[in-house]
Amino acid sequence: MPQRSALRRRLRVSPKTLTQMLRRLEDFGILDRAIYPAAPPRTLSTPSPPSGRAP
User: Fold this and answer.
1) Phi and psi dihedrals of 46, rounded to 5?
2) What is the pTM of this model?
C-alpha cells in the first residue's frame, strides 16, 4: 500500500478524511492496521486476506 502522504495526494483528500476512510475500511474488514511504537507512532494499513464469502 502506498504511503499515506502519496495516497492522500492521489485521492485529493485532507489527512482527517483519509484517516476516517482508512478506519472505516478497517471496520469493514477490508484493511488490517498495525501500529508500530515510534515517535510519532507509525501505522501500516494492508489489505485483509479474503474471507471466503461471496460479495
Assistant:
1) -130, 155
2) 0.67
